[in-house]
Write a structure and sequence with these properties.
The chain has 241 residues and is of the alpha/beta class. It is built from 9 helices and 11 strands. Helix 3 links the parallel strand 5 and strand 6.
Length: 241
């Protein structure tokens, strides 16, 4: 049995993730990229002081900032390694927290950095980083530098979900989970979810999926590990173990 993995991330992240899946699983799976969101960059930046500390929680935030500013001499914190690598490639000095928002706040506290902080974010976010920093006594503000615009599933994705073969769906945020299940009401294919976090898993409606597995680490590698485990279980005939 060939398992289908339906990738709903925005491009170009969707294609990159499909390539990573192919490198791990080869022809054991079929991947299809059907983004549920399109990234649109824009916004206005406040004046950035020499002591400003930038905070990035996604690679899109890095790209959005770099479109609006030529500053590359500012220290920045990134939620995870992939975001830090994107910042470093852009010429910024990035410190990776290696995890989620909680890890980011903990790393900033451990380093004793006082700010002021500027969070470069999208129009939709899962957590209030600026509020959390302010609650800890820091000067913190934010700037929206991109939007995540909803798009419809394509015809092939709908056909996949109308079949009776199992479909694995990696979900990288609570919002992507919400959009996916809103757009796929009435789908009959058994859906197996690989969620990047507990928050993303909690956004899956009751009865919406046969199985919901949460990544051990809140990043692409963690989700990829869950995908591999689900594929092994589906091929072995015991997906619910």
């Amino acid at each position: 049995m060939t398992v289908t993995i339906l990738i709903t991330r925005p491009e170009p992240a969707a294609t990159r993730f499909a390539d990573q899946i192919g490198a791990r699983l080869g022809d054991r799976v079929v991947t299809h990229c059907a983004p549920l969101m399109r990234i649109e960059y824009g916004g206005v930046l406040p004046e950035i002081g020499d002591d400003e500390v930038l905070v990035f929680t996604s690679g899109h935030g890095v790209a959005g900032f770099c479109r609006l500013s030529e500053r590359r001499d500012v220290t920045c914190y990134a939620v995870g390694d992939a975001t830090a690598e994107a910042a470093n490639r852009a010429g910024l000095r990035a410190i990776s927290a290696g995890g989620d928002a909680g890890a980011l706040l903990a790393r900033i506290a451990a380093d004793g950095v006082r700010g002021p902080f500027l969070h470069l974010r999208g129009a939709h976010v899962a957590g209030d980083i600026t509020g959390a920093l302010s609650a800890r006594g820091h000067s913190a503000h934010e700037a929206v530098v991109y939007d995540q615009v909803d798009v419809d599933l394509d015809d092939r994705a709908r056909a996949i979900l109308a079949g009776d073969a199992p479909v694995i769906v990696p979900l990288m945020s609570p919002r992507s989970a919400q959009i996916f299940f809103e757009r796929t009401k009435g789908a009959v294919a058994p859906v197996f979810v690989a969620a990047i976090s507990r928050n993303a898993a909690d956004a899956v409606p009751a009865g919406g999926a046969e199985v919901v597995e949460i990544a051990q680490t809140p990043d692409g590698t963690g989700v990829l590990n869950v995908l591999c485990d689900l594929v092994n279980r589906l091929e072995g005939g015991n997906p619910a173990q």
